[in-house]
Amino acid sequence: MKNIIIFTHGGGRFANQLTNFAHFIAFIKQENYSFINIAFNNYSELLDNYKKSDIVKYNLEDNELNSFYFLKFLLKILNFSKHRIYTKLIIRLLHFYTFSQPKAQSIRVNSSSTLKFLTGKEIGNVNFSDKSSMDLFAKKKITIIAGWTIRDWYLLEKNSAIVRENLIFNEKYQQISNDFINNIRKEKDILIGVSIRQTDFKIYANGKYYLTTEEYINLMKKLNERYANKKLALIVSSDESKNIKDFGNLPVYFTTGIMGGSGHYIESFIQLAMCDYVLTVPSTFGCWASFMGNSKIIPVYDKNELVAENKYFNNNIFDCFTDNYYSEAIR
Predict the structure, then answer these.
(1) Mean pLDDT by groups of 10 residues along the chain of 331 residues
(2) Is 171-328 a domain of CATH 2.40.50.100?
(3) Where are the domains of the chain?
(4) CB 299 within 8 A of CB 323
(5) What DSSP assignment string belongs to 93-140?
């Protein structure tokens, strides 16, 4: 019988949770653990593999939790209670329960990135390839874990194709995106996704990665000049409403999931992933879109200058991780 890992909390919104999930899948697929991802529960409807309003289970058989009745009971409650207050309470109960069981353990990774008042052993960063991490998960039948820096970039790169195969987007949103992108590809040679990230980036890292709309447009003009001999399409996603008129004569197409549009934001993510390149600041949304589509990243170091083509990230998010500037956000 396989050991079970339950991830409860750590990181922020969709792309952050995708970061966690991808690393766990890379590890679990190789080492054959069972996995429950409570932290991804609010996003389960976005993936075709998982039912809406069900705890995200991966590689888990129905009978594997039979000897942990109270744990099964708490997980069932989570299926019906989506309120944040109740969810946080149940997560704390899950950690307390597993901490008290001889065949289970509760782990907090860098407690500053977890909920307050979680019972469990506190440790530093987790790297799945380290022997200490391997021993940690092999130690008990059930490990319940919370935290942000639970990673293995080497293992993720090695198993990246498997990870993509196991993170299939909801068929509805994928079909909308297929129709949108395919219609543009009929007329264009190159599709460059432009991920405009503003809202929280005005404050995040003291605005270090924030660009105004005009600065994004200036970079797009430079892209248009660079590929003047090609039929270029700029696929623009934004977390703030935009007016198409502000982009002048640029070959801009708003994603169907752009803020203020009629679609779901996941459509923007999928459509960025389907582009040949993604221009993005150090943001998990844009960088993970490029990973999912296995496309190249056009990094933004300078608000006023476009990087040379030989400075593009050919290995998408893995080049982000090893880059001194981008690794501040992609870690």
Answers:
(1) 89 90 92 90 84 67 77 79 78 92 92 79 91 92 93 95 93 97 97 95 88 96 97 97 96 97 96 98 95 97 93 96 92 84
(2) no
(3) 4-161, 171-328
(4) yes
(5) HHHHHHHT-TTEEEEEESGGGS-TT--SEEE--EETTSHHHHHHHHSS
